[in-house]
Design brief:
By secondary structure, this protein is α/β, with parallel strands linked by helices. The protein contains six helices and five strands, in the order ββαβααβαβαα. Strands 3-4-5 form a three-stranded parallel beta sheet, covered by helices on one side. A two-stranded antiparallel sheet has the order 1-2. α4 links the parallel β4 (96-101) and β5 (128-130).
Amino acid sequence: RPKVADYPFTTLVPNLGVVAPHKYRSFVIADVPGLVEGAAEGAGLGIRFLKHLTRTRLLLHLVDMSPPDGANPADNVSIIEDELDQFSSTLWSRDRWLVLNKLDLLPEDEREQRCADVVEQLEWQGPVYRVCALSGEGTKQLTHEILEYLEAVWDEERNNPEAAERELELQRQMQQEARDQIESLQRRRKSDDDDDDFDDDDYDVEVIYSP
């Protein structure tokens, strides 16, 4: 059960959960800690959990539309985008959806414009969803469309060997980029005194490839 609170970065470790929009149809979702600027270089929780994203098929930017520190939501998304690209350009090229959350905290007459401003500032070209996770508003549509997207991907790979091989190659590229980034960070660690919490196991990437 992930920690929930009214301040940023309450999620400290990746949390996995099964989402079942239908009785016999489901998918696994990973809730990972928020990224800070410089994460790819080890800032904040660094890349301890970024490796988990290399195993995903779809990335969701869950955007706090009413951040307690008054930050610009679009700036926060841009930071995450930059960190993903630095960590793995292949991962960055994955399909990404923008999920604008906590709309209930915005004045009703400002919601439309505030959402439009974020999309415009980011020059976002992908899907955009508006939700209130607390009340569940908009989440049903989102989870149904995620499931439909993933099932279409899975069907394509089952029926098209070339598509399955392309996915395996993408996985290999992401894992290699992750290893390269991890090794680069390790080389910059001058001594154990620089980071007493450093542990090789935190950065280990072990993946089994299968169609």
